[in-house]
Amino acid sequence: MGINTRLCKVSNFGTEHRLNYTILGRLVNLASRLESAACDEEILMSLSTYELVKHSIDSTNRSEIPVKRFSKPVIAYSVIDMIKQEN
Q1: Could you tell me if 68 and 34 are in contact, meaning their C-beta atoms sit under 8 angstroms apart?
Q2: 30 to each of 8, 14, 24, 50, 51, how far by Cα in Å?
Q3: Does domain 2-82 bear CATH number 3.30.70.20?
Q4: What is the DSSP letter of 40?
């Protein structure tokens, strides 16, 4: 699985005869590319997602991953587990 967190465009796209509710854009493509780079049963997340969840998700830095159609490699994190919160 690949997860990337950013604002994107979500809407009905198509014609009056056939509409699809979908999501488009470069940032969606990044999530798809992370999914392709993930090993079996692995969840990869982008740096932007990691910054949002780093205090509740235990993860490891997978370093930079070359991503098709991106000029620079992307920093990816592999999810390990939820961080247990003490009460």
Answers
A1: no
A2: 12, 23, 11, 14, 16
A3: no
A4: T
CB 85 within 8 A of CB 56: yes
Q: Which residues are registered as beta bridge partners of 61?
A: 77
Task: Report the side by side order of strands in the sheet with 74-82.
Answer: 2-3, 44-46, 74-82, 57-65
Average pLDDT for consecutive 10-residue bins of the chain (87 residues)?
Answer: 86 85 84 92 95 94 87 93 79
State whether the Cα torsion 68-70-73-74 is positive or negative: negative
What's the pTM? Answer: 0.80
| Distance, CA of 65 to CA of 87 (rounded, Å) | 37
Residue of 70, 81, 1 whose CA lies nearest to 34: 1
- Which candidate, 52, 65, 62, 60, places its Cα nearest to that of 81? 60
